[in-house]
Design a protein that fits this description.
Layout: E1 5-13, E2 16-21, E3 24-31, H1 32-40, E4 47-51, H2 63-71, E5 77-80, H3 86-95, E6 99-102, H4 104-108, H5 111-120, E7 125-133, E8 139-143, E9 148-149, H6 154-164, E10 168-173, H7 185-194, E11 199-202, H8 208-216, E12 222-225, H9 227-231, H10 236-245
Length: 263
């Protein structure tokens, strides 16, 4: 098994850092730069930074602001939000992103994924999928910050994105987002079983056991989380220590083997 990653997610809106529940009721949790500097010291493997308003407002990420943020970021940085063209991908990479997350545009213009992978390498392209569970119990992909139904089933869409050249899949449960009630393990498992590329589980982490379940029970290669790190005393370092205590390989040989389950 490859070493598992723990990845804090930073949701960026109007230069501020926010967190909501089920992609709604956004609450300010500070500004991006201080949070980024804190995570630099907290043994994180990577960071995901998403401008949640960019697609809905039909604009791109503020490249100048991103450049300033990236200059202070000492871990791999995935950036998403408003990615519509190959120029957007190029500009994000030039501004300091290590990877680019593509979501809404891929449904209507899947060639963006393949063109981005061909030009910059699959390792730079993270295909993001936001999914909701319908009344019939089946999952459906939603675009535009979870507001538009696409009619696509997540695992089938993940296979298409892999075939197009995506290097990773970021799968988020809209309903579980911000609830801290645990990942949608059924959704994560369906996607991990459908593809051979790494899958990042997102949406619902509330404690270290939830992260362990996403990895051990559903086969995710990484766990992305926000509320657990914003609103509790739990940390990425302790999350990795907990995973190590459960015989899950994690990055950083210096990670503590003991852990304290925080409230």
């Amino acid at each position: 098994m490859l070493k598992v990653r723990v990845i804090p997610t930073l949701l960026w809106k109007n230069l501020g850092l926010v967190k909501g529940i089920a992609f709604d009721s956004w609450r300010s949790v500070g500004t991006v730069m201080p949070a980024l500097k804190v995570y630099n010291t907290r043994d994180v493997d990577e960071l995901i930074l998403v401008d949640i308003a960019a697609t809905l407002e039909a604009r791109h990420v503020d490249y100048e602001e991103l450049n300033e943020l990236a200059a202070e970021c000492f871990v791999p940085l995935t950036v998403g939000g408003g990615v519509r063209t190959i120029d957007d991908i190029r500009n994000l990479l030039r501004a300091g992103a290590d990877k680019v997350s593509i979501n809404s545009t891929a449904y209507d213009h899947p060639q963006l994924v393949s063109e981005g992978a061909e030009r910059y390498g699959s390792q730079c392209i993270v295909a993001s999928i936001d999914a909701r569970k319908r009344a019939d119990g089946q999952h459906e992909c939603f675009s535009h910050a979870g507001t538009r139904a696409t009619g696509r089933e997540p695992s089938a869409w993940a296979r298409e994105l892999e075939a197009l050249g995506a290097g990773e899949i970021l799968i988020t449960s809209v309903e579980r987002d911000g609830t801290m009630q645990g990942y949608d393990l059924e959704l994560v498992r369906a996607v991990t079983e459908a593809v051979s590329i790494p899958v990042i589980a997102s949406g619902g982490a509330g404690n270290y056991e939830h992260i362990y379940q996403a990895i051990n029970d559903s086969g995710a290669s990484a766990a992305a989380a926000a509320s657990i790190f914003h609103f509790t005393h739990q940390t990425p370092m302790e999350a990795k220590a907990y995973l190590a205590s459960q015989d899950i390989p994690v990055r950083n040989a210096n990670v503590r083997q003991g852990f304290r389950q925080s409230a």
